[in-house]
Amino acid sequence: MAEKWRNWARQQTCTPARIERPASEEQLSEVVARAARDGLRIRPVGSGHSFTDTCLTDGVMVDQSRMQRVLDADPTTGLVTVEAGIKLHRLTAELHRHGLALENQGDIDTQSLAGALATATHGTGERFRNLSANVVACRLVTATGEVVEIDEARDPDAWRAARVSVGALGVISHYTLRCVPAFRIHRIDELRPAADVLADLDRLVAAHDHFELLALPHTDKVLTYASQRTDRPAAPPGRLTAWWNDDVLPNAGLGAACRFARLIPSAAPGVARAVAGLIGRYEQLDDSYRVYAHQRRVRFTEMEYAIPRAHAAEALERVRALVVDRRLPVLFPIEVRFTAPDDAFLSTAYGRDTAYIAVHQVAGAEYEAFFRAVEAIMDEYEGRPHWGKRHFQTAAALAPRYPGWQDFQAVRARLDPDGVFTNDYVARVLGPVPVSVPGGRP
Questions:
Q1: How far apart are CA 309 and CA 337, in angstroms?
Q2: How far apart are CA 406 and CA 398, in angstroms?
Q3: Which of 110, 240, 388, 432 is the right S-S partner for 119, CB 3.0 to 4.6 Å?
Q4: Would you call 281 exposed, middle or buried from its count of C-beta atoms within 10 A (0-12, 13-18, 19+)?
Q5: 28, 164, 226, 247, 312 from 83: Cα distances, Å
Q6: Do the bridges between strand 60-63 and strand 42-45 make them parallel or antiparallel, or are there none, so unpaired?
Q7: Which of 91, 108, 104, 93 is nearest to 132 (CA)?
């Protein structure tokens, strides 16, 4: 009987012809080559934390969860080689043992490294790029089972394509990452008036190593996370304080509020204001990987758009007004983060200082009307959707928003000319594999 697969949010499901779980690069190569010989399409999968149908297939699903080893870590150079299936929480703990850390990190660490990199996952901080910008090299298994080593010196176009690939070029077995010496973060969380924060947004972003804000729907408040890197000794919050701020409020409390709002949608504004009243000042001073990530036990679906940073405050205000004007039963905060530009062809931050605006809806609740309305706002700012989060775009709409689009397609035509790694999602957002022509570009 065929095995059924579903993602973390339990909203994307498929029944592949088979699910393969290789434990080494050699096994991965054999699995991929056999699938291609059998005429089956191939999709890699990590932790299933993407909200789109990016991993779905009726062909062969390659689950890399058994490929989680750190193969080499050099504290002198900061270069670390790891298997692509390693989960971020395991990677960051292993790096810490070697006196190293990721330069930046997002607020969820349950993803696989390969999935996070392939979708341009990021943290926040105007001086820091997304995670994929620190990929020095990778080893890619093509549809023939051949292992191709990719780095900037060998093949600069493939290197800029493979760092954010949406799984459309092949299955990556190993990454070599540039890491930094381990460090600590002092973070202060405060509830502040939205008008004050947005009026001072540029200064706040510039004044902190990492800055993000969570706009609380149906209120005039935002929760700010302001972080500085430090060499001060760790001083974790007390157990009771941490339990309230890391567990009760964002998980049990938010979950109960969302269930109540689903039952009585008209009560959402009042519930949102009540939840805001429970939020107080919170401080953390600990190793970076312990501060960056949070446990998320309330299942949700999410849309996130990358827009030019200069439009962040204006776009956020429009989304906040949308929620209020339509009295939408939305309780999840609207999240805003910032990163530096980079040069991966499909990076959402390609070539521009970027602000990310993310909206969420609890799993099981209607989300499409809200997300489509937000997407219409983001389209006006040439928004680029996070590749692993909900959106309704097609290749025709996205191509003009990426200066490196044709360069990526040329690499795709070269590495996967038969479209073995293309599924419905990839075909929808990247288009069919273009015909390669002499000279490189399709």
A1: 9
A2: 12
A3: 388
A4: exposed
A5: 11, 17, 33, 31, 36
A6: parallel
A7: 104
Q: How far apart are CA 146 and CA 171, in angstroms?
A: 11
Residue 440 pLDDT greater than 90, yes or no: no
Q: Is this structure's pTM higher than 0.85?
A: yes
Model pLDDT for residues 384-421, shown as the tens digit of each residue: 999 999 999 999 999 999 999 999 999 999 999 999 99
Handedness of CA 48, 433, 21, 130 (dihedral sign): negative
Task: Report the alpha-carbon distance of residue 367 to residue 389 in Å, rounded.
Answer: 13
Would you tell me which CATH number, out of the four given (2.60.40.10, 3.40.718.10, 3.40.462.10, 3.40.50.720), belongs to the domain 184-392? Answer: 3.40.462.10
Phi, psi for residue 113 in degrees, rounded to 5: -60, -45
Strands 13-14 and 5-6: antiparallel
- Alpha-carbon span 246 to 248, nearest angstrom: 6
SS3 assignment, position 396: helix
Boundaries of every domain in the chain: 184-392
